[in-house]
Amino acid sequence: MADAVRYEARDGIRIITLDRADNRNSMTPELLGAFAGASAAARGDGTVRAVVVTGTGSCFSAGADFKAGVQTGSEALSPAERSYAMYEPFLSLLDIEVPVIAAMNGHAVGGGFGLALVCDLRVAAREAKYGANFVAVGLAPGMAISYLLPRLIGVARASELLLTGRLIDGGEAERLGVVNKAVPAAQVMDEAMTLARAIAANAPFAVRATKAALRQGATAEIRAAARAEAIAQAASLATDDAREGMSALLEKRKPLFTGR
Asked: Domain tally for the chain?
């Protein structure tokens, strides 16, 4: 079987492609393991000037694979540690010193939306749907989304999206400031590569130093937020409402939450 994630070099640009379109590029152990390897390759490459993350098919990433189970990791880990372990491969993008661009070829929901948020720049497909609908399936958020989204669009707008679980299209994402640009899906990769080439044309040390200045003091806080979310998410997973929410999602019906 081909790798779930492809890693490609184009001059000074590295492209990480989630390549499980048949499963909506969801967060299976196979995909997460391959993503961690690709991220490590980018971190260890001294010639890289920019990184583009994208997907195949109609989804950038649909987040957790509810059929396989929301959490990944050893049974020896606590529920909170397993929640965090699932997100760690995507969070590893925080350790890449050069700018990372999300080429959001299609829908990005839940953890897939979080993957886009940990990137430095985002290009969205205008017609695709984006957001963190954790509450709609009975879950607390993860992937440090409750930390990152308010810093992009403000607390009030982030609160509305996170507390309602409402998904937005690429056009609204651009208007709110979630993404840098929204274009037709067929143009997403071209736009992302244009950004990557513009970055790659600049002085490498200056670019890395500028990214470090922008992120100064933030990376550790992002991980702390992700760990705090993992505790709440693990607790929410133990509720009847979470089981109902995930069943309803898979059965394509409206959930009936009881507060238990």
From this structure: 1
DSSP state of 237: H
Which two three-digit tokens encode residue 128? 């695709």
Domain containing 122 equals 5-185
Express each pLDDT in 8-46 by its tens digit: 999 899 999 999 999 999 999 999 999 999 999 999 999
- Is the alpha carbon torsion for 197, 201, 204, 209 positive or negative? negative
What is the rounded radius of gyration, in angstroms, for the C-alpha atoms of the chain? 17
Report yes or no on 29 lying in a domain. Answer: yes
Which of 168, 124, 129, 161 shows the shortest CA–CA distance to 145? Answer: 161
CATH code (residue 30): 3.90.226.10
Sheet of 181-183: strand order equals 5-10, 13-18, 50-55, 100-104, 121-125, 181-183
**Residue (of 202, 59, 53) closest to 123 by Cα position:** 53
pTM of the model: 0.88
DSSP string, 82-125: HHHHHHHHHHGGGG-SS-EEEEE-SEEETHHHHHHHHSSEEEEE
Q: What digits encode the pLDDT tens for the residues 209-258?
A: 999 988 887 777 888 888 888 888 888 888 888 888 888 888 888 888 88
